[in-house]
Amino acid sequence: MKFGEEERLRTDFEKQIANIEMNALRAQMNPHFIFNCLNSIDRYIITNNTKKASEYLNHFGRLIRLILQNSRSNYVNLKDELEALELYLKLEQMRFRHSFDYEINIPPDINPENYEIPPMLIQPYVENAIWHGLNHKDEKGKVSISISINNDIVTCVIEDDGIGRMASKAMMKAKEIKRQSMGMNITSERMAIINKIHDTNNNVRIIDLYDESNKPKGTQVVLNISL
């Protein structure tokens, strides 16, 4: 066997292994996400709030259909991904009794239907903003998701006005809470595999935000996704 052919076979084999790893990670991601939603439905049922439970179930059903549809492919339509993200935000907003607002900003010159990205890359960072930033805030909070596209890169900026990462870690340590963001861990692994398979440069930066008095005022996540 020639060296070039041997190298090609090795590369193909590594990509097949990476694809198997990717499918395994997606298989972990969906139950984790679904379990959180089912907990919320259970709470509505226990408190006999049938109207809210019905509304939640309606959103949940639509979201699950989208997730199952999107999970069949390595890349999905950006429009479908943003629709799933908005349904998720509605569910979490209901779950936390409207303790936060949200907005998704897309410039009018961008048609999301024209672009495809790997599924479920954005949602874990939004989940983290809600659970670790906004959930510990005394007053009403807000999370903003802004989409831009330049040079075949989709940039998603997720910004919350929560308590900040350091305060969140200190609070969780004081309460001996060991909840980790399984979704974010899986997403980091997925991005590394996607970069390996498709020779892309998907990456994320997490930035702590401070006010003029140098007090924490939230967190910004800049997620770059190659088209």
Task: Explain this structure.
By secondary structure, the protein is an alpha+beta fold. Helix content is 54%, strand content 21%. It is built from six helices and seven strands, in the order ααβαββαββααββ. The longest helix is centred in the first third of the chain and has 44 residues. The mean pLDDT is 82.
Query: What do we call the CATH topology?
Result: Heat Shock Protein 90
Enumerate how many helices there are, as a single number: 6
Order of helices and strands: HHEHEEHEEHHEE
Shape: globular
Can you describe this structure in just a few lines?
This protein is 54% helix and 21% strand. The protein is α+β, with helices and mostly antiparallel strands.
Secondary-structure map with pairings?
Layout: H1 3-46, H2 50-70, E1 76-77, H3 78-95, E2 100-105, E3 116-117, H4 123-134, E4 141-150, E5 153-160, H5 165-174, H6 182-198, E6 203-210, E7 216-226
Parallel strand pairs: 2-4
Antiparallel strand pairs: 1-3, 4-5, 5-7, 6-7
Provide tags for this entry.
single chain, 227 residues, Heat Shock Protein 90
